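Here we describe the complex-level prediction in full. Unlike the single-chain runs in Section 2.1, the two entities below were treated as one system.
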Amino acid sequence: MSENRKKTIDVALNRVEGDLELRIEHEDGVVTNAWSKGIMYRGFENMLKGRGALDGLVLTPRVCGICGTAHLLTAAKALDMISGAQLPVNALLVRNLAMMAEHIQSDLRHGILMFMQDCHNPAYASLPLYGEAVRRYQAFKGRSVIGAIGMTKKILEIVAILGGQWPNSSFIVPGGVASVPTFNDIVNCTYIINLFTTWYEEQILGCPLERWQQVRSEQDLQAWLDESDAHRDGDLGFFIRFARLVGLDRLGRGHGNFVSFGQLELPQGSAVRGRTADPLLLAAGFIGQGQAPAGCDQELVTEHVAYSHFVDYPGGLHPSEGLTQPYVSPYEIIKYSFCKAPRYNGRPAETGPLAQMLTSGHPLFADMIAAGGPNAYVRELARLTRPAELLPAMKTWAGEIDPEAPFYHSVREIPDGHGYGLIDASRGALGHWVEISRQKIAHYQIITPTAWNGSPRDHDGVRGPWEEALIGTPIADPDNPVEIGHVIRSFDACQVCSVHLLTNNAPATGRSRCVRV
Amino acid sequence: MNPNLYWLQCGGCSGDTMSMLSADSPNIAEATNTVGLDVLFHPSFSALTPARHLRLLDDLTGGALPLDILCVEGTVITGPNGTGMFETCAGRPKKDLIAQLAARAGLIVAVGTCAAFGGVTRACDVGGVGLQFAGKEAGGFLGADFVSREGSPVINLPGCPVHPQVLIGTLSALATGKRLKLNERNAPLEYYNMLVHQGCTRNEYHEYQIEETDFGQMGCLFFHMGCHGPLAHGPCNKFLWNNRSCKTRSGIPCFGCTEPDFPQDTPFFETPNIVGLPINLPDGVDRPHYLAYKGMAAAAAPERLKHRQPKV
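The structure predicted for the assembly as a whole is:
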């Protein structure tokens, strides 16, 4: 064997939200090891300390431009808990609607603008679907791209109607919402939901929502695909055809552990029901590899820093006691990421739409995971079809808002205390752990979905979810490792920018060559 | 030949990119296609192969391909201790790449408050600065005297996030060779000579000093709820957000996110005041006359407003 058999590359990945670099070790064209590096530290949690009790409502949406409403809601829920607020039904309805509009926006922007762009990667230029992929997904020009730009901004008008603007509003407050939508506002939301649903049915699904909801197994999925040209020609049908052509189902397996904090509280008296007994539309849960879904207990969440650029502590700490003391050194050889390593009951877990569909009992995804385990295909399938889970409930909930009833129960002062907010943001489990003392923030820790998915190794040296998912990935061309892009983007990585690809040389010896995928 | 554009993201949240995607009439696809902008690279949308992107960066920083417009989104992170190692790119500080591209660019646009003034990331302990300002202080990363190849300072488009109309409008002007007049903070007068307050549907409450003391009361938010509308410069109530509304119209105070001192040190949702009167009065207002006017206005307040009959 040649001495060049084992190679390391640094991959710079764009079309993710945030800063990301991967170091990949591959042998005979197959990934044998991977390190995921969060390469930006902003120090948000420390900045919040000592600020006003409500300041998290303004500042934490600025953690992430694509899921700011999720941070706002999580921050408000922590303060709801500390202040013992009882929320009016209207407030739950408004919060849910805004949250769902943001999810749908995120799912389709990621799916159509970011993930599907890879379908016309030059590596696929000789494939039969290439020409169609260019016509659909070329940046700023493709037919599906233009449709998705137009309609994702349309659905976000709901957040602006209910809360003033998107991104970065602060309309969710402890005790409810600050806005007081009128009858006309609600009617406009309903029209937008209907308009969006029609587009989603025609452009993405190629069928009515009701037809898609009958797909409950992999066998049903095949029957659905075979049923009509419209099903095959929608973006979902194209995705399935493309995924099978290039074998996305053989990429990105990972640990097979899933965590979801659940979301969308069912307001009292609502006609909307979830699939489980959980008082949430989409239930929380943890699923260990091959096990049945179990409940999710935030007490079991810890964060490790052994391989992260923070001052060491042994093992993991619960976020309510979490420490964030950055530490970088030019001589560092162990620590490689500004991301901490969150663990559930000591185990790494992936999070996102797929985890959420599994913990909330969606039969199609339970069937697919039982048959073949997680992979890039099923992850993206869950994302592209999640709007079909949300739109019917949105329509019902918009109709249940009573503009004459209250939207807010007064919480004039936040008392001293600890609290947390847990939801599933667009990319998965999001938690804020907050301590308030004398009207000020005494402690604030945030665990984002991408901290779960893009976690570095933990105290025991166990890889994070997408590090693990990369193992075994074939790389046909190290200058254009499109397969790595598929795996990482199937997690909807929220770290803008880069995975850097360093060829031929071992990390310690070589000057790296930076390549973007 | 169409002018080209390179979009660089650094210490931020990509909220400005997300705001841009919500632009309407024209939306971002229409704008780039009709104004004729050649977007060389945008981190969220481009499908360049790794090798081609690497060549592009070499061509731009080496000068082989002249760069017309550089858009920078996010704060320049210089910490810890000036090393820039809190944000790296292939093991090197990201700030070095910013400097290399800035030295070559014809025009530079600071997209959002972080790139313009440092913004939220400046408040964190990471040495965050704007391109030519650090908060209110001129200088920032490139220095107060910096001009780009075409002789212009960095064009600041503050806002957290930038209003999409401001971004698309400015890029349209630059792409067609028009130069916008800038204010003393290098932001286009076209968009930043007005206050957020102007056009707010709650103006009549402000006129008669009918003020909210708690959320959802449908009054003016300036006296007690921490609204910066009469202090902050921007078109939020002229163009609205997402074609629909804006925070102040929906009962959420303006946080002054276009201003160089955003985020302010004082708690949000509270107005710093002396005996119930705001310490910071509306931009340029004379204090004694304002106080006299407010006293008389409150006495003249009509019942229909006191009882919130307009429901706006």
